Amino acid sequence: MVITQVKKEKRVADLVEGLLTVWESSVRATHLFLREGDVDYLRPFVKQGLQEVPLLFYAEENGAPCAFLGMEGNSIEMLFVAAELRGKGIGSALMREALTRNACRVDVNEQNPQALDFYRRFGFEVVSRDEVDGLGLPYPILHCTLKK
Prior knowledge:
By secondary structure, the chain is of the alpha+beta class.
């Protein structure tokens, strides 16, 4: 596995599409609470995020993207691992990279307890909750920070 940081100007269409495929695979495996049509609705927002997030890392397996992590400042904005590669340490490798970049905040869907457990293993704790997500959808968000 290789982890690569990719600058905004190097985020070519093929890479972004590959990362969107990773996102969809991951979401379909972990976000079972989403309603029919939500993935299609969310895809353009994720694509825009992949193009605009200031710091983006992705992991490759056999020459294709298999996971990615995006950061803005000290906040992890996105972390997704292809469904078939979950539990193999790729997400943890990306997290260690983020922590070396002073990551200390992350938001998690309340209905995704596996993600919350993952972040807790790295020392994050829930500090607040919003009833809806950033798009106003009825998916509560837990705001987490790294324990001091």
